[in-house]
Amino acid sequence: MLTQALNLYKTAYSGLARSSWNLSLVLLVNRSGTMVLPFMTIYCTQHLHFTIAEAGIVMSMFGFGSLAGAFLGGKLTDRYGFYDVQFGALLSGGALFLVLGFQQSLVGVCINSFILSLCNDAFRPANSTAVAHYSTTETRTRSYSLNRLAVNLGWAVGGAVGGFIASVNYSLLFWVDGFTNIFSALLLVKLMPRSGAIKSAASKVMHTVKAASAYKDVPYLLFLLFTTLFAICFFQFFTIQPVFFKTHWHYSEMFIGFLMSMNGLLIILIEMVLVHKLDGRHHPLVYIPFGVLLTGAGFALTNILPGVAFTGVLIIVFLTIGEILSMPFMNAFWISRAGEGNTGQYAGLYSMAWSTAQILAPAMGSFLVDFNGYSFLWWALGIISIASAAGFASLYAYRFKPQRGNVIKAADVNPT
């Protein structure tokens, strides 16, 4: 049994390009140093003596910067290539983290936070484009899952180390975050020299024609709408739900931290294997609705089951499996729509959908709780998840369902 399990993991991780592993390593180092953002609200209120409302404004600047960065990153990637945008985003982001640690006024912190987030999130569409470039049709979805694994593992390390550093000196968070970004940029240059990336990219586009605009791809724009609805629900997991666990179910901070870590651990343990088993058997839009429905069910369980420890664990299992069944295949879908000349556009729009949800989710969640309580919020998230899943399913049924039982692989869908 153990041998079979080990062989299953070996198969799931085999066949991925060396460049895909190198990209994930760069991302792992970068995310392991992500320490400022999780503690930014506490830093603003406790050390800069901002009000809660002012701290909320600062966090909104991160959200708006993320939205602008996703758009700009997509544009720059198509114009200058994914390599230069990744390097520039990492290097500038690192420098801006160092500068942010010296800001004391609300205006200074807000301006710095916006520009920092803009630079940081310009990295995302460039990195997504790089993953697509270095992977094959057969390995593309797993390559994105490898990136997600690096992100989740990095967040777990960064959160744990960041908590320790914050207990010693909050100012150190900015130095560690900044130098980790800069080190990631240097690691990118060391592992993946620019000349090789540019030469490889040039050989791929030598005989291609100008691709159509992502902004005119109606099926893709509908996909982004349904993705945004899902993301608004999913972000409640990191924003409103921990507060509910603490104030209403009276979970300890340690147990809440365990639940958050459990999400990342489950992703690390099962996502690559599950994606390997499912990828290529059906169209990505077949899996996504199931993942979205499981996420909605996870939130609805909060109203159905008692607030004991087992319920918290079960909710995390539902949310995590829903995440695993949806997000990797969302990546598979958007890259299947892109051509050689507009991958940055598609990646940028996809990142913008998540950035928009990152801005809207805390405001919507707080409003619904103030309007009619937590129970109303959990039912609302369930209903929105059903609407999102129905949208994905309808998009598949009317635009992408194969005729006469033909199966379309995840990365074989051509733009229409």
From TrEMBL:
It comes from the Bacteria. Residues 8-405 form the Major facilitator superfamily (MFS) profile domain. Keywords: Cell membrane, Membrane, Transmembrane, Transmembrane helix, Transport. The chain crosses the membrane at residues 20-43, 55-74, 94-119, 149-166, 220-243, 255-274, 286-305, 311-334, 346-364, 376-398. One of its GO terms (cellular component) is plasma membrane. It holds the Pfam family MFS_1. Signal peptide: none annotated. GO terms for molecular function: transmembrane transporter activity. It is found in: Cell membrane. It is a multi-pass membrane protein. SUPFAM superfamilies: MFS general substrate transporter. This is MFS transporter. It comes from Mucilaginibacter aquatilis.
